[in-house]
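Worked Example 4.2. Consider the chain below.
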Amino acid sequence: MFNLTTQEKRVLTGLIILVLAGFILSWYMNRLTRSSTQLISGSESQKGSTQKTTAAWANGTTGRLIIHIAGAVKKPGIYELPYGSRIYQAIRLAGDTTADADTRNVNFAETISDGEKIVIPSRIQESNPALLAMPPGIPFTQLQESSANQGAMINSLPSSRRININTATEYELDQLPGIGATYARRIVEYRQIHGRFRRIDEIKNVRGIGDKRFEDIRNQITAD
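Applying the procedure from the previous section yields the following structure tokens:
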């Protein structure tokens, strides 16, 4: 049918071989690509499964934690919370903070650990030296039985436990009931100008400290 020379037959044969080789190479590359995709997909799936298993193990079998919350909360005690809970959630579970709670240094967003004890501080403990002077084991309710008892406990404080108005820092003076940062600063400024207080009642010479405020602190201060 076709009268081809020997040279033309060789060229045609070479072209056919090249086409077949290209087809085979293309088929092999496609198959290799599909195999690689399946392998990567399987690895990712296995990785995700491993991560889920690890997370479940880290959270424990129940996914719960036990904590103890105490201090200035309405219902202190032992509570159970989900893993990942924050301090504000524990406080809410304990009926919220009491009126005397001092939350200035409480990080409400902090994550709770299993077995942790959370103590919410109280302003009463900071401002009432009588409470700090009580022997360990005496319930705080005994200090609150009556104002007469409170006065007796404060009067019984040794002078070494009282705040010396001649040497105390602003921070120490700030802890006295009814003084605060403003009056504490005025007391220090008065000392710098007029010198030492010879008697504790001379603190009334400081602007703003009258008889009532002096009566509130007289049994908690010394000028010795």
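The longest strand covers residues 64-71. The chain has three domains: 1-58, 64-122, 126-222. Compare this with Example 4.1 before moving on.
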